[in-house]
Structure prediction request, 353 residues.
Amino acid sequence: MNVKVKYILPLAIVIFFISVVGVNAQMENLRADYDSKLATYDQAKTDYLKLKNLSSTDSQRVEGARKVLVTSLDSVNAYMNMFKSKLDSIKPAEGEGSIGNLSDKYIQLTGLDRKIQDAKSLDDLKKCLTDTKTFWQEVVDSCKYVQSRYMLFQTNEAYLKLNQVATELDSFVDSEELKNAKNSLTSSNTEFTNYYSQMLKKSQSDMNSSYADLQSNVTKYSKVLGDTEASLAKVIQKASE
Amino acid sequence: MNNIPRLTKESVKENKRFTSLIVLAIAIIAILFSVFVKVSRDAEYSKALKELQSSSVSSSTSVNSSGESKIESLLRMSKAITNVSNDISNLQIEAKIGFSDSDTGLKIDQTL
Prediction:
């Protein structure tokens, strides 16, 4: 084996894994942040219920209720952050300004937080609670849409990258294995491209309602991608020997 | 019977010294031999490696339009494939887990 392959390849793999660990660590941090915010929110809620049962004064109940709502917004914010990082990693389709409305939700969150801070009575806070519940549902819908788009985008990217490698390999290698891998990739890619363009035309609510279907399709396409990737890796390995 | 030389202290000492010298000589010869074998093997290995490298380099140094040799292209493709492999694994996990707000989502009860 060539000296370059012997030394540079392991080095490249090590650098790659370090970067993967970095990205995963970032996601883990976002997840941990969300979990801790959720725990704080649960604690605030429990404290408030105790406070309510102890016949405390009205002002104490208002402050307790405000704390519950503020911490609930913190949790929503941390939840949104997990999907914001996914949203930032994908590109809008051609002619599409921005993907979904998750970015707008941050503005709404700030407005809702101000409303909670300004609330004077329990009745005001009850209205805020209703708004927070509605807002939470909207956030879930936005995040679900981001998740769908993220999976579709990643699938498309994987097809593009594998196609690029397969085409380039064609100029080096002439093997049955490569031909089969290329054929399988091309037919699966054509099928996926049709599906992807159909999905991009869908509205957020339509895409969310067909989430289970999207999930099974992504599973199907990622299986083909995984098999093709393994075949191409073998072809590269043989060509390097 | 009188012709048989008698073992004296001196002759026993002499014999021991002689035996030690023989053992030492054998050990030195064995060491020298193993060093010689190792050196000659290393030389052969280096020669073979050089031959292999020169043949490998000659077949892989033809450059493409972007000035990249075959081996460099293969390395780059190998790296790209490793990246895609990880992306696909992540995608498979994402598709398997799916989207759920029931276990992780915020449950706002009617607390007020």
Observations:
- Chain A has two domains: 3-144, 153-240.
- The helical segments of chain A are 3-53, 58-88, 102-118, 122-170, 176-200, 204-209, 211-240.
- The radius of gyration of chain A is 25 Å.
- The mean pLDDT of chain A is 88.
